[in-house]
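Supplementary Text 2. Reproducibility record for the structural model of the 104-residue chain.

All settings were left at their defaults, and a single model was retained for analysis rather than an ensemble. We include the record here because the model underlies the residue-level annotations in Supplementary Table 4.
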Amino acid sequence: MRSLLEELYHGDLRPIEKRILRDATYIQMNQKIAEALETWRKQHTDEEFSQLEALLDLYAQTHTMELTSTFTYGFRLGAGIMTEVLTGKDELARKLGTCPENLA
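Retained model, structure tokens:
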């Protein structure tokens, strides 16, 4: 088994692919979404359903951006905490734990 650094180097470390898929609540919610979409598709025209799909695609894109930002912030925050623990210097840790959007 390769180390995390080796997996990162080889491009095999992709947290988005390790998301919670076995959680019963997650599975139930996805089933409800699929059923609601199927009901919606049956009750509307193809054009209306295509419009809904386009809207859902836009939502998925923004949701992915939010997940990326949240992951990045969490990673930086963790690095900041480790920096503070190992060095005892608060200023660097606070900068590492800040989202780039907030660094201005």
